[in-house]
Description:
Elements lengths: L4 H20 L9 E2 L5 E4 L2 E5 L12 H14 L7 H5 L2 H13 L4 E5 L2 H12 L5 E5 L4 H10 L2 E5 L4 H10 L5 E6 L11 H11 L2 E5 L14 H5 L6 E6 L9 E5 L1 H10 L1 H4 L6 H15 L2 H17 L14 E7 L1 H13 L2 E2 L1 E3 L9 E6 L6 H17 L1
Parallel strand pairs: 3-12, 5-6, 5-7, 7-8, 8-9
Antiparallel strand pairs: 1-2, 2-3, 4-10, 9-10, 11-14, 13-14
Amino acid sequence: MAPNPSCTLMPFSELQLQLDERAAQGLLRQRRTVSGPQAPQLVLDGKPYLSFCSNDYLGLASHPQLVEALQLGAERYGVGAGAAHLVSGHFEAHEQLENELAAFVNKPAALLFSTGYMANLGAVQALTGRDDTVFADKLNHASLNDAMLLSRATVKRYPHCDMEQLAAMLMETKRGRKLICTDAVFSMDGDRAPLPELLGLCEKYDAWLLVDDAHGFGVSGAQGRGSLSFAGVQSPRIIYMATLGKAAGVSGAFVAAEQAVIDTLVNNARSYVYTTATPPALSVALLESLRLIAGGDELRCHLQSLIAQLRAALTGLPWPLMESDTAIQPLLIGENQAALALSMALRERGIWVAAIRPPTVPAGTARLRITLSAAHTASDVDRLTEALYELAQEF
């Protein structure tokens, strides 16, 4: 019997209608193709732009020392790990990097993951279950939100950085493990979690604290050691996650914690156990990146000067900069179409700044997410500033 064409096509017609609706609301996502290395001067879809979109905060993504280290790693280890870490895919370069990462963030042990998303999924799923409770800031990254659902634990979300509400939730939770999950630097707002206060609540209510430092590692704290160093907090209760594809300039992520936590992840974190290890050549590059980060005070100082320059320059715009002392500087626009139009107008002037819209951010808070890098110059910031003031007159 021949298939009914209308039945065959119907599911895809429905999908297209949903996509068309997203487009009408200014919510349709599209990819752009980059030619050449990641840098402030970026070629997108064949056209040159001054980019303020990258999370390459120290400008290491195309650093010649990392390129050379990756090449040497590939010559020594090849280009693939071949198996999961628990089979035959755990190389000496992986082991060395884990040890050095643990020491760098002042933790007893560390475990590499392929991505920050997988690290969060694996950690929360392995450490909590049906009888436990996960407490989460409402502005946490999507990976932490998905991790909570995967864990099957009870989920309690508290208003952004609201320690009073969190304390009340902790107080009323009487059984099971308690895990607080938070971004250290919130990816769309650029502000920081109150880590000392969070740790205080963990100690008072016998909870654990998982800190996602994707946007702090390499940039914040002494020698770029991350947000724990920046906030001056350390505790065995803290489970620390950081990504290696942002300030570190390469790829991957790691979790650092007490040895018992790491051993639990090795045995129970499904996103670690059931996936092929990252190429060991990446670990060779990351070992070099770690050395550049540790010696990168001049890069971090330059980045901070650019942040101060941008914030001082944009005070006269009709759109406010959100409060942030980090490389993430969101310009709050409000409506989706207005944010898209402003992003497009900048693009016509050869400047690339991404418009961020719901559901990534709450409705009515669409924004331009300006991200700065130590690879930018003061002249680059001047060019962005001048363009925004010109557009403020037009809009």
